[in-house]
Amino acid sequence: YLQKIKDKGTLVVGTSADYPPYEFTVKQSGKTTYVGLDIEIAKKFAKDLGVKLEIKNMNFDSLLVALETHKVDAVISGMNPTPERQKSVDFSNVYYRGKQYMLINKKDAALYKNIHSFKNKT
Ligand code: ARG
User: Fold this and answer.
1) How far is the CA of 106 from the centre of ligand 1 (A)?
2) Residue 17 — φ and ψ, nearest 5°?
3) CA of 80, closest atom in ligand 1
4) Which of 77, 82, 96 to mutate to test the pocket of ligand 1 (most atoms within 8 A of CB)?
5) Does CATH number 3.40.640.10 belong to domain 1-122?
């Protein structure tokens, strides 16, 4: 399959560019370009394969069908491997696991200990 992609000279990646910071669009001088973590991964794959990259932007819900009908070679779209999706497609290993934190001022640390602290606060 990789040889097929090399032969056609283009890696076609499907994404839904509405999910920053993974994939989203920026307009620069009237031209729309795709940016984000997943786009960088796609670029690296294409580069390593020595082929051009074509991003196909579509609704998130269309991605798996596009993959199954070979309209795209791969999907990179911040997609989690749910059991339902795993029935039809083959997921890679996890490539990003986020750790997000909220922060508050130090002086309020005693006020907000956990999620329940947000009850009845105005
Ligand atoms: N991570 C969520 C999922 O797998 C949402 C992904 C949405 N991605 C996107 N490019 N709109 O369902």
Assistant:
1) 34
2) -80, 60
3) 4
4) 77
5) no
19: CA distance to ligand 1 center in Å?
A: 7
Cα–Cα distance measured from residue 120 to residue 7, given in angstroms and rounded to the nearest whole number? 63
Tell me the ipTM for this assembly: 0.96
- Residue pair 90/68 in contact (Cβ under 8 Å)? The answer is no
**DSSP, residue by residue, 51-116:** -EEEEEE--GGGHHHHHHTTSSSEE-SS----HHHHTTS----------------GGGTTT-SSGG
pLDDT at 1: 85
Q: What is the pLDDT of residues 59-95, one digit of tens each?
A: 999 999 999 999 999 999 999 999 999 999 999 999 9
Q: How far is the CA of 77 from the centre of ligand 1 (A)?
A: 6
pLDDT class of 121 with cuts at 50, 70, 90: low
37-59 confidence digits (pLDDT tens)? 999 999 999 999 999 999 999 99
For the chain, the structural domain boundaries read: 1-122
